[in-house]
Design goal:
The chain is an alpha/beta fold and about 300 residues long. It has a single domain, classed as Lambda Exonuclease, Chain A. Helix content is about 55%, strand content about 15%. It contains ten helices and six strands, in the order αβαααααβββαββααα. Strands 1, 2, 3, 4, 5 and 6 form a six-stranded mixed beta sheet that branches. The longest helix is centred in the C-terminal third of the chain and has 27 residues. It is globular, with a radius of gyration of 22 Å. The termini are far apart. It binds iron/sulfur cluster (SF4). Iron/sulfur cluster binds next to α3, α9 and α10.
């Protein structure tokens, strides 16, 4: 090992002395792409994606994602407590104490709740989760926030699965800090389709790592827990041939979108979307100099 390091050091010095690279061949580093951070964002609006990702502008309202983040962090913490102490946290005061600790650590990152109401809602969601599902779900969690990746031809496919459950067979779970979208509305239907695709990607990555697809993928819409007749679960079965075909088709589509993004990067060209939900534009940091937004006024 030391010999290799010495050789690398010598090559480095030699390169500095001759003042040019040792090879003319350009090595292109593969970039990491995720379904939520890249593919969905780019599909919603390439211009907005480019301004955030390519130019590195920070969102002006980081509180928007505070809600989902604190819920995810607290759920992970509850799982860790179970693994270490073999007990499920159910006491409201203890949950609130953990919530406060996570909140402080998020404040140090400059992330705060948008309002006391949002803060209270996040806390109530976790308390209800522990009461209704803690005993049943937490002991079955084998991994929380499992990071999965696969090296594809020209990029790295990456994803973080919120929880892998061993329920006789493996299940992958994704928590959503929101209500279940209404499939009767076009925007709700579209969101559900996108979230299913997120599970397709995680199922595929899981199979690449473990050799088999999980039995199913579950989306849990946590705000439904606060409703009297909420429907928090949406599932997809990976043991259906039709699902596997859809997964494989989507992985091909994913690679195609990555190619589009890389082309946009090379040409530094970030188009406006053909269609977009007005709500997205209203919350967009770049609406004031956006032709699409101005034309919609
Ligand atoms: S205002 Fe709408 S169309 Fe314009 S960049 Fe923002 S999201 Fe895209």
């Amino acid at each position: 090992m030391e010999e290799v390091e010495r050789l690398i050091e010598k090559l480095k010095k030699y390169r500095e002395r001759i003042e040019r690279p040792l090879t003319k061949k350009k090595v292109k580093l593969k970039e990491r792409y995720t379904i939520t951070g890249d593919i969905i964002s780019y599909k919603i609006c390439p211009r907005q994606y480019g301004l955030y990702k390519f130019y590195g502008f920070s969102p002006s309202n980081p509180t928007q994602e505070w809600y989902g983040s604190i819920i995810h962090r607290l759920l992970k913490r509850l799982h860790t407590t179970y693994r270490i102490e073999k007990r499920i946290v159910k006491d409201e005061r203890e949950i609130e104490k953990l919530f406060n600790l996570i909140e402080i650590s998020m404040e140090s990152e400059g992330r705060r709740a948008s309002s006391p109401k949002a803060r209270e809602k996040a806390l109530q969601v976790i308390i209800t989760f522990c009461k209704k599902y803690g005993e049943e779900l937490i002991p079955k969690i084998k991994e929380a926030e499992l990071r999965l990746l696969k090296e594809m031809d020209n990029y790295i496919l990456y994803g973080i699965v919120d929880a892998v459950l061993n329920n006789e067979e493996y299940e992958i779970w994704d928590y959503k800090g929101m209500e279940r979208p209404d499939p009767k509305k076009p925007s709700g239907k579209k969101k559900i389709e996108l979230y299913k695709k997120q599970l397709f990607v995680y199922g595929y990555l899981f199979k690449e790592r473990n050799g088999n697809y999980p039995k199913k993928g579950v989306l849990m819409f946590l705000n439904e827990l606060l409703k009297e007749k909420g429907e928090p679960f949406l599932e997809i079965e990976f043991d259906r041939k039709e699902t596997i075909r859809e997964v494989e088709d989507f992985i091909r589509e994913f690679s195609e979108i990555v190619r589009e993004i890389e082309k946009s990067k090379e040409e530094n060209r970030w188009e406006l979307p053909k269609e977009i939900d007005e709500k997205v534009c209203k919350q967009c940091d770049f609406k004031f100099d956006c032709e699409r937004f101005r034309n919609s006024l």
